[in-house]
From TrEMBL:
Record-given protein name: DNA topoisomerase
GO biological process: DNA recombination; DNA repair; DNA topological change
Toprim domain ranges (all copies): 2-134
Organism: Paenibacillus mucilaginosus 3016
Signal peptide: none
Length: 680
């Protein structure tokens, strides 16, 4: 006997026949070949019976009769398609085996299960489970037919969903209608969704807009021009905003902080149905239903995409070769220019942003197939283009940027700027001819993936952005005229004053150190400068003068002679992040590879400009010195025997080390002589 194949729709039945038995004869309601008979369901042929099928009293809607809960749900044929159901029943009598070829999903499983239960079909069942309708996929699916029993859990889930819809719909609609004397429809899905829409509409109607003001400032340094956004509470007073703008207008700014970090933006996730519907609505104004209908046409009629009713944005290992093949086929289309820039090495089983079997349930993400369509109607072409471009983006590298974050002060006010400098478009070249996409899937706008609590003026630029933070004190600012070692100087000048023999510090200076590095660090600096004096509150009376100047030669001699025992390596921060001044001087000053090298001077200049511990650049120095990444170094400061004029401490407070950049300062002194460093 033959095998009866039951597809969900006539188009799918004809596609199956063409793939597995091209010579089969079309009998209008079925197609018959030597081995197979192929027919179809035309959607739902069977449904659950109305309440009055259980008891005549349910013909009238009475609140007292509720709830209606059948012990066994009855099935009834759809009157409009009952003839096709009879065809299936007759064909089943001529066949020894059945193949469930309905859509590979819960609903397709339910359609076949209803037919099987209503007609009481007892033949063994195999399941065709495929994600697209290309002939190759269909033939492979029949070669790998699965046991019908393997899908029994899916069948039970579909049955439970259907019966829950009936229970809530029938009882809820009758209850609300009889109570409110008006025909009201209640549904398991429709009612909660309607409630969400209603609540949202009420929020929109109740919303009251508040006018607020933003103050922007443009700063110029050499040929660099950048924009900053004032940092403070939201301004609702226009006069206050104007006064603030007038306060800083035409004044000089001071760069308080300047950070640069590399960041990458990865391609957005592959489409599932919901994401595709959302983007099609945003770009083209398509409704969710229209997007689904277009996707179904691309799937069923053109066989150009995989199964669209999916909730996954990922693929499995088995899909990787298919993706590579589809890429090759797209090279023969109008997408050939984009395919030329694609690289298959980015799509592999270990790329969890693409291949993640644990996040694939019934179906993988929506993909273009290797069957490319011809001329498509405009709306179908738009949707197909969305899917293809998202697919192609997975074969491109991440877009790379340098994120420049600048905090500029002017007249006591702070302005924050974020400059996003493009280094490499990467996958974004796919969308270069379109408007800028908003992130709707994977991809980070910030290197750490976190949102900034403060607002800033963000600009995206393609030209190099450079800023010299050494120009922190603008001409005309009284603080810029203070000599190193007096109130207003910062920690850079403290170190320069230390190694150059300047021994005076004021309360304003103490405040800077305490604020930026904490009290313990400030105390250690004071101990180095004054043999134990405490660097405390910002009081102008806190002016201390050391009795003797630092002997620079003795300091260098101490560094060279008193070798640090690196074999002890007590627990401490790694040199990637911090190191004390003597370590830095010893390592960098004693290295033949580094002495006088241009690279050291450039690194030193960058550290000065940026005023921050830059782990990446310090790591570069470590690599050049052949120090293993993460190697821990001792932090004891050698104690001098009895050296005149040299004041030191046995070691910093527990857990304290000096910033690594101070080591660069000392190394600079060793290389270039005891000339004071320029103020930052």
């Amino acid at each position: 006997m033959k095998t009866l194949i039951i597809a969900e729709k006539p188009d799918m039945g004809r596609n199956i026949a063409a793939a597995i038995d091209p010579k089969a004869k079309n009998q209008r309601t079925y197609i018959e070949g030597e081995q197979y008979i192929i027919t179809w369901a035309i959607g739902h042929l069977i449904g659950l019976a109305e309440p009055d099928a259980y008891d005549d009293r349910y013909k009238k809607w009475n609140l007292g009769d509720l709830p209606i809960i059948p012990e066994q749900f009855k099935l009834v044929p759809n009157a409009k398609t009952k003839d096709q159901l009879k065809v299936i029943a007759e064909l089943a009598k001529r066949c020894s085996h059945l193949v469930n070829a309905c859509d590979a999903g819960r609903e397709g499983q339910h359609i076949f299960s209803l037919i099987q239960r209503h007609l009481k079909l007892k033949q063994p069942v195999k399941r065709l489970w495929i994600s697209d309708l290309t002939p190759e996929t269909i033939r492979r699916g029949f070669a790998e037919l699965k046991e019908g029993a393997d899908f029994e859990p899916l069948t039970r889930a579909a049955k439970a969903r259907s019966e829950a819809d009936w229970l809530i719909g029938m009882n809820g609609s009758r209850a609300f209608t009889t109570k409110h004397k008006e025909l009201l429809s209640v549904g398991r899905v429709q009612t909660p969704v309607l409630a969400l829409l209603y609540d949202r509409q009420k929020e929109i109607e109740a919303f009251q807009s508040n006018k607020y003001y933003e103050v922007e400032a443009w700063f110029e340094q050499g040929e660099t021009l950048y924009r900053g956004l004032w940092q403070g509470e939201r301004l609702t007073d226009g006069e206050k905003a104007k006064a603030l703008a007038e306060k800083v207008k035409g004044k000089r700014g001071r760069v308080e902080s300047y950070e640069v970090k590399d960041t990458k933006e990865y391609p957005f996730k592959l489409y599932d149905l919901t994401l595709l519907q959302r983007e099609a609505n945003a770009k083209f104004g398509f409704s969710a239903k229209k997007t689904l209908d277009l996707a179904q046409t691309l799937y069923e009629k053109h066989k150009a995409i995989s199964y669209p009713r999916t909730n996954s944005n990922y693929v499995t290992e088995q899909n990787i070769p298919e993706m590579h093949r589809a890429l090759d086929q797209l090279a023969k289309t109008d997408y050939r220019g984009l395919v030329e820039g694609a690289d298959k090495k980015f799509v592999h089983k270990n790329n969890k942003a693409v291949c993640n079997p644990s996040k694939v349930e019934d179906h993988h993400a929506i993909l273009p197939t290797h069957k490319t369509p011809g001329a498509l109607p405009p709306d179908e072409a738009k949707l197909y283009d969305l899917i293809v471009r998202r697919f192609l983006s997975q074969f491109y590298p991440a877009a790379s940027y340098k994120m420049h974050t600048v905090l500029t002060a002017a007249e006591g006010e702070r302005f924050k700027s974020t400059i996003k400098q493009l280094l490499d478009l990467g996958w974004k070249v796919i969308y270069a001819d379109q408007k800028k996409e908003k992130p709707t899937g994977r991809g980070k706008g910030k290197a750490d993936g976190k949102e900034d609590d403060e607002e800033s003026a963000e600009e995206e630029v393609q030209t190099p952005f450079t800023l010299d933070s050494r120009a922190a004190e603008p001409p005309g600012d009284p603080r810029a005229e203070d000599p190193p070692g007096h109130a207003g100087a910062d920690e850079h000048e403290l170190v320069a004053a230390l190694v150059a023999g300047k021994r005076t510090v004021g309360g304003g200076q103490s405040a800077v150190i305490v604020e930026r590095h904490g009290q313990r660090y400030a105390d250690a600096v004071a101990a180095q400068l004054f043999g134990g004096s405490r660097c405390s509150a910002p009081d102008e009376s806190d002016l201390v003068a050391a009795e003797q100047p630092v002997d620079h030669a003795a300091l260098i001699e101490l560094v060279i002679d008193e070798r640090i025992d690196y074999d002890r390596r007590p627990p401490a921060r790694t040199l990637h992040e911090e190191g004390d001044i003597l370590h830095g001087a010893l390592i960098m000053g004693e290295s033949d590879d580094i002495r006088g090298a241009d690279g050291l001077h450039e690194l030193h200049a960058q550290l000065l400009r940026r005023r921050k511990r830059d782990a990446e650049e310090v790591g570069d120095v470590i690599e050049r010195l052949d120090i293993a990444p993460g190697e821990q170094l001792g932090h004891d400061i050698p104690k001098p025997d009895d050296r005149d004029g040299l004041v030191t401490v046995d070691r910093p407070p527990d857990g304290l080390v000096y910033p690594y950049r101070t080591g660069c300062f000392a190394a600079k002194m060793l290389l270039d002589g005891p000339n004071p460093l320029p103020a930052a």
